[in-house]
Amino acid sequence: MVSNNHAAGNQVLSASAIISEKFAELKIALGELRGLKQGRINLVASTTAKYFGPRLLGTFRRKHPEIELALHITNQEGVLARLAKNQDDLYFTGRPPSDLDIELRPILENPLVVVAPSNHPLAGKTNIPLKELATEPFIFREAGSGTRLVIEQFLAENRVAVDIVIELSSNEAIKQAIAGGLGISVLSQHSLDLEAQNGLLTILNVEGFPIQRHWYVIYPSGKQLSVAAQTFLDFSIDRGKQIIEQFSTDLIPHRSLG
Length: 258
What we know:
Shape: elongated
């Protein structure tokens, strides 16, 4: 009897979730029939996107104040887990999955650069051989980070092994560790805007860098986007680069960021 009650309870919960989802879809559909761009957009982004995502959302929100926005930041593994379950409207990533059927739209360049303390012996030098990185203490993001996966693949392809002295779970922690002289790292150039104001860090001119990547907005193939989500997607493609460049500081390689 207890087992039957448990099964019945699960069915009620499942049905309730479906009904709630259908009501939400109905609300959006009715709004769209009236020609309104309204509703709520749930966005998910991997960690580095926090440096440009809020800027993009802020500009979009001023243009479309009737649309509610929610941004969830996680690492690459978290993005792909939510994408696989189709839990959200749109996803920001710098490393689109190859094993999922998705729609993919590039919105912004994402150069990865070698970052060191401003007083580093290699600061100011040009065309530093990649093999010299093997003699440097390296700071890496945690396993599962999209940036780490790209760096590991790049180093493996060039047959360079580096000495990882510590793994940290955020770019902010890595930048503080670099400034404190713990080692060097590879970071998205978009993460360095604040350090451009204090001169603590420098971008090293290393052969093969920057590693040119892109940021994408992705979503499952066949997914029917709401008018609100489609409006945000179009806005990101059309205005994303312009908005980020407007906010970003000009970073000059081989000099202190200041």
